[in-house]
Amino acid sequence: MADLHDWLTRNAETLDQTETLNDEVLPALAAHGCFRAGVPLTLGGEPGLHGDVRDAILGIADVARYSVTAAFVYWGQRSFIEYLLQSSNSALRDRLLPSLLDGTLAGATGLSNAMKFLSGMEPLSVHGTANGDGWTLQGKLAWITNLRAPRFVAAAAVAPVDNSTPLVAIFASDDAGVERSANLPLIALRGSNTAAVQLDNVAAPADDIIATQAPEWLAHVRPAFLGMQCGMSLGLATAALEKAAAVAAKGRGQLSDDIAAARQTLAEHTQQLLDGVADGRFVTAAPLMFKLRIAIADLVQQAVTLELQAKGGHAYLMQEEDGFARRWRESAFIPVITPSITQLQAALAKHAATQ
Ligand SMILES: Cc1cc2nc3c(=O)[nH]c(=O)nc-3n(C[C@H](O)[C@H](O)[C@H](O)COP(=O)(O)OP(=O)(O)OC[C@H]3O[C@@H](n4cnc5c(N)ncnc54)[C@H](O)[C@@H]3O)c2cc1C
Q1: Is the pLDDT reported for residue 277 higher than 80?
Q2: How far apart are the C-alpha atoms of 210 and 212, rounded to whole Å?
């Protein structure tokens, strides 16, 4: 891992501010076995501390300490892998898993719209018409990350036009009717291959269906999806608090108690997240996980603020820049990752009203 940490340290700014390493980040992560974390050994996984998705959460957190862009690519790829692990379509899993694990194929997750749909916030943006052997897809995914050349596969939730139960299907970049936009001009995370995708009469045969019953399947996969996203926050908060503590230790001691308290809270939230993902409680008690995701996002804001306060005016000096400005920009992404804090608050309010 030291090699990967070195690579990330050298390239974190480039990954955040340019598209020059778009092609390199996925292979760099794959070369260190990242996508095998938490995958069963029989399916090509690597042994880890827990042997399940918790290893991927911790792996993403580890990468996010150095670069949230790289952690986000890791999240997209590993989430797609998780969908296959949790799919009953074993033929699809066997077909795609080896090239996803070794990073020669990129996997993208277009499920933010689906997660909003699950919380009753918006309709699905991809529609499907049954065509005898599966579905014909039509629609648009406005934001989707890890759309790496030369070829990617992506997952989307599909609303059948006959109003039957939504499903989750995959499509590939070389399928007829798939049109990827240019990379979106982002203020940060620019090395993440994030673009929009238009689907025009794209064939999704039965072989390419991840789940025939999207609501039930999405509720089941959501803890892993959300848990891995929280991994980005955990890593970023860890990095900012490490920097804050290092500065405070050199004289700005006034903040030491606040920094120590934030680190303690971070450790507690991490444990709650790992325990909840492991014991399945977040499947049945989604509000518990939503509250934890909000608390972890708050902690990220607190952590970067503590880093800023510990450094004071020095945080503004170019010659003393050590990644603070990037972490500050990266932290702006945390509240808007699906499900965004706004979406979670709306879902919690709705839940409270039904109690
Ligand atoms: C860099 C980047 C990469 C991304 N990558 C992916 C990806 O790989 N896969 C993916 O699926 N998504 C991706 N997204 C999408 C991301 O997850 C969305 O930003 C997220 O869903 C937030 O949605 P939103 O913009 O509607 O903001 P929200 O925080 O949900 O909402 C903003 C405001 O709009 C209101 N609002 C939201 N929805 C509605 C609605 N339906 N009707 C009325 N008001 C509404 C809210 O109440 C709030 O006031 C990416 C986004 C970014 C910035």
Answers
A1: yes
A2: 7
